[in-house]
Amino acid sequence: MRETAHRIIGRVREQGDRALVELTQQLDGTDVTGRIRVDSREIENAEPPGELKDAIDSMAERLRELHRRQLPLGWETERDGVRFGEVVLPLASVGCYVPGGRAAYPSTVLMTALPARVAGVRRVALCSPPAEGGSLPDSVLYAARIAEVDDVYRLGGAQAIAAMAYGTETVAAVDKIVGPGNAYVTAAKLEVSAAVGIDLLAGPTELVIVAGASADPVVMAADLVAQAEHDPEARATLVCLDETLPEKVERALESEVEASPRREIVHRALAASAAVIVGSEEEAAEVVEHLAPEHLEVVTDDPAGFLRLVRSYGAAFLGPHTPISFGDYGVGSNHVLPTMSTARFSSGLRAADFVTVRSFVEASEDAVARIGPAIEEVARAEDLPGHARSSEVRR
User: Active-site residue among 191, 229, 294, 376?
Assistant: First the structure.
């Protein structure tokens, strides 16, 4: 996959729009000649069904409120005649990747574009693979409109990542690329990461459920199916504090899986998933730390207490009344989250990911006289006489 992504990126860099047209025809079966960029009238005319439109509007408002809380603040102070601080500045441009083709994901439009807008990014672009005939779903275009996306492109896969990273005749390059995608998209993001910023290298979605004796087996089964229906490579782990729970959940899974319209995908994902029986919450916490999952669901007598035992997870969903789908659709969490155990050292997508923090220093004449000698001493000890000299000439 990495080699394929590398070849595609090379073609786009060399051939620009021509490569985008040829690759979209080859890989998506769609001719986008002369219409890589979605016309603004098409975006303005996009109208999903009324109830869906209202749901997207509600999700957008929740996400704006969430992401407004995440921005760092600039500051400054003065000490010993030196004024110093930090300035918070939004990125100039961001590209959002939204999966598509056979399905529509307006939620991902909002999860990626809205925090960029909240952060003050000047230009937000969006790429999503077209369906047969070159169309993008009304729900995606409507979400792009209310998120104030500047440019929408009918592009998917590694070629979309290449276009946003390096630019073509139609697609202007961006400073950072965010959003989930398939293995080729992830490989392409890794390939271009020396040229542009990226958010996460997302792998298959993951869930760990830590469940006690009070957990409802039917609810647990429904949550496992909800996770498994994403992708055959999705992985779920049920960590049980009650040794009778796995059998109860397995029985409940039979009917839940059978009722799923995506049962083939669910079967394949659950076949590679697991149940673990532990003797204590401390042992359950060790399992969570080992897996560092994207999603953590805690259904115990004291979910908040258990959460204090762990540190490695993308987003946590606490108690029997909190489905993971709440996080998927903008209730308190962004759904672009770390996978493949990267929650050990990374966070989900946040408004803060769309800004840079710059330092500034301003010294007075008296400050140079007071602080300069100590600075010069360290510089000479490190055999950097020019550093020392640049301070001495000011005294």
Answer: 294
Q: Is residue 294 flagged as an active site residue?
A: yes
Which domain does 125 fall in, by range? Answer: 2-198
26 DSSP 8-state letter? H
Same domain, 69 and 106: yes
Spatial separation of the C-alpha atoms in residues 384 and 242, rounded to whole Å:
64
Instruction: Sheet containing 151-154: give its strands across.
Output: 151-154, 123-128, 93-97, 176-178, 197-198
**Is 295 found in the same domain as 178?**
no
Q: Is residue 354 part of a domain?
A: no
Same domain, yes or no, for 170 and 22? yes
CA dist 182 and 161 (Å) reads 12
| Residues 315-323, mean pLDDT to the nearest whole number | 97
Residue 295 is among the residues annotated as catalytic for this protein: yes
* Other CB atoms within 10 Å distance of the CB of residue 199: 24
Domain annotation covers residue 356: no
Q: What is the mean pLDDT of residues 157-174?
A: 98
Q: pLDDT by residue (tens digit) across 53-99?
A: 999 999 999 999 999 999 999 999 999 999 999 999 999 999 999 99
For residue 105, tell me if it sits in a domain: yes
4: its two tokens: 């394929």
Identified catalytic residue from 67, 256, 281, 295: 295
Taking the whole predicted model, whether its pTM rises above 0.85 is answered as: yes
